[in-house]
Amino acid sequence: MTQHTPIGGRPVFVVDGSRTPFLKVKGRPGPxxxxxxxxxxxxxxxxxxxxxxxxxxxxxxxxxxPGPDEANIARIVALRAGCGQRVTAxxxxxxxxxxxxxxxxxxxxxxxGRSELILAGGTESMSHAPLLLSTEMVTxxxxxxxxxxxxxxxxxxxxxxxxxxxPIIGLLRGLTDPVVGLSMGQTAENLAHRxxxxxxxxxxxxxxxxxxxxxxxxEGYLREIETLYDAAGKVYAQDDGLRRDSTVDKxxxxxxxxxxxxxxxxxxxxxxxxxxxxxLVLASEQAVDKYKLPVLGRIVDSQWAGLxxxxxxxxxxxxxxxLLSRHGLTIPDIDYWEIxxxxxxxxxxxxxxxxxxxxxxxxxxxxxxxxxxxxxRLNIDGGGVSLGHPVGASGxxxxxHLLQVLARNNARRGIASLCxxxxxxxxxxxxxx
Length: 433
What we know:
35% of the residues lie in helices and 19% in strands. The chain is α+β, with helices and mostly antiparallel strands.
């Protein structure tokens, strides 16, 4: 387990944050590229600030699949947002936790005195994930390009096989772990088997996620969302993956996706494939005083953990436990929790792992079980199952929303966490002042 941010450095404050609506992928490229989404969150956020964008020290964004025109997407967003040429910008990638990694990098730089004011977060346009050519097709094209005569071209053309033209779906490849040879959904099935999580429990969790998101929309709780407008003038004001009519009976009709014969993980109890962005402004105490900035809360600490890639969904259990231990806290000391809903069974497995004395002793190195997280304090406004999981953005979204939840409920402390493809977990503790 690795702690990347030193305790005892300068305090780091979250001034404010914004996110776009999370837009469900509907089969074709969506209206916004990743840089467009990030800009849609950045511009209104920076417009609220009492300082000019050029006064930022740096911009840090997480993104897993930036487009070919978005190399170092953070720099592109910084320039388009009016930060000017002197504000440096860089992009990070830690799979599903890229947005949280960006926040952690910003946190470290401010805590260590390297920066005073940073725009950080994550963005992802999963609908624009690339279609790739096979190695065989690329090799054939290389031979074709070397041809100088018609005869050579005819010779090479004879070796072109139809199977070479079959595209590779980049998103599916990206959601498969090459080390253990399992898709993320298959690792979720592993957890369902390990902790005896039934299909009914998964579907009940999924329905509850939709009910909670519907209530949050109705009550106006998602104030961090900024409305988007596409080139045709269409308005996008809310997360559009919400299924208000979702029921356990309806979900029970869906076939398993990752283990068709024996599995329980379906499209209905998994996170939706989604486009979206979330950005936050982080500041030192000196910057808060200089610009008289509002403060939403502060980042207290962060933690990264590694585990078996075939069990990757348990990453939050491994990352959150050291945070509690290091600060001398127990579960009741945390007012609210956000665990990204990559899969319903994955969140349920993390809860079960902490309840298990055997798991806590053998896997987490603890003396006994940590206990059970109260469901009424976990993902109280829904999560990835209902609003989606744009992989580069989710880590920033859950931190931002957790701070909003603390403010809304006059609460003090929360932990946000994600599982990470490849067998890792990330967690961040925040406090409302």
